[in-house]
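Protocol step 4 of 5: obtain the predicted structure for the target chain.
Materials: sequence only (see below). No template structures provided, no constraints applied. The aim of this step is simply to have a reference model before the mutagenesis design in step 5. Sequence pasted as it appears in the construct record:
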Amino acid sequence: MNPPRRPVVEDTRILHLLPVAADSTTVAAVGPDRAFAYSDADWREIKCSLARVSIDADVKMVGDRWWAQPDPVTAFTAAPQRPLREQLEALASDYRALSCWRKERRSLTPKQEAAKIQKVLNALERAHFTLNSSRVGIIARDPASVAAREAISALTAKLKRWRDRLRAAGNRSSINARKAHVEYWGELVILWKAITAGQGLSHFLYVCSAPAFPETTQGRIRTFLDQLQ
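Step 4 output (structure tokens):
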């Protein structure tokens, strides 16, 4: 059996299309649209799109909420694993909620969000220093303490990357004006590249997003994918 393909999470063509304020943790923090779920007819369409590339969508498992994990490189294969249908519904629910959140003008400007991230970074760096400098045996050597320091380091690195991108964006209102469904398509592209190298991405995007976002059209998806070339 071939090992799973690494998701192309650092694909700059995708990142170019996604606003920096749409970090996965920001999406997850908004809270899901709990009213959304795929109908059985919707799911049959999604199953057919994946069957064309030899994927059984009913049995396919993926990492729980891969789009909201601190390490996207391993998120698809990490435990716990959840059914693909469940995770696709959760992804759509999160981005539907993000769309409403933005329309209500509750999102921060990039500069404001960068400032809030910096406050968290300051606290994380203090915590990491305190753990590292402790001479108490259970703190210095306990496996839980070692894991905590590693987790803090990983989260700090990620937050710094997003802070820097947010600072570069400044207060440009166009960042928050970009459409949530376009960012959602970016997440679906990452999923597709992680689980298959086959053809049919455009159709997959369409059948996944049409039930969730009424503004979805095949023409808009083609335009989106053309910009990734």
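Step 4 remarks: Residues 143-169 form the longest helix (27 residues). Confidence is low (pLDDT under 50) at residues 1-23, 173-177.
Proceed to step 5.
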